Amino acid sequence: MKAIQGLLLASAFASALAGAAVLKTDPAKSSVTATFKQMGVPVEARFKQFTAQIDYDAAKPAASKASVEIATASFDLGDPDYNKEVTKKDWFNAAQFPKATFVSSSIAPAGAGKLNVSGTLNIKGRSAQVTFPLAVKSEGGKQVFEGALPIKRLAFNIGEGEWKDTSMVADEVVIKFRVSAGQ
Known about the structure:
Layout: H1 2-18, E1 21-25, E2 31-38, E3 41-47, E4 50-56, E5 65-71, E6 75-76, H2 80-86, E7 99-109, E8 114-123, E9 126-139, E10 142-152, E11 169-182
Antiparallel strand pairs: 1-4, 1-11, 2-3, 2-11, 3-6, 4-5, 5-7, 7-8, 8-9, 9-10, 10-11
Pfam family, one: YceI
Keywords: Signal
InterPro entries: Lipid/polyisoprenoid-bd_YceI, TTHA0802/YceI-like_sf
């Protein structure tokens, strides 16, 4: 009898875990960009290297978790000289801080196909608690997570020295992301 109870308990535990699963990110259909203004002109650049770990259960979104790591040296402004410049100490300081990270602390439903995500954003050794809306939809058998997170670059020491002048590069930056992931 105890063996049967143990087997039933193990089966129930396995079923509970089966609802949430770490999804595999499809890099070809995923992106992370940063949009900002330089001398009043909008600029959008992308991070060419990032990983996302998403443990998502549509039936229980509050039990979901997400984390993202972005290689700061992969920031691509479309020009090799600019790309080299932003890896330097005044900008991302990629030698000392090779990764920017986000780790969720809560994910809450916010209506059909919408979630509110909170967590810790860490860039260049500085951390901040952030909250942002996230849209979730199914596309081609995968889950697609899309959102935008506005930040102030100076809060993370991005653009030190002469680059603190926000008339050259605005303080406001919007990190936009689209992550396509599935089983």
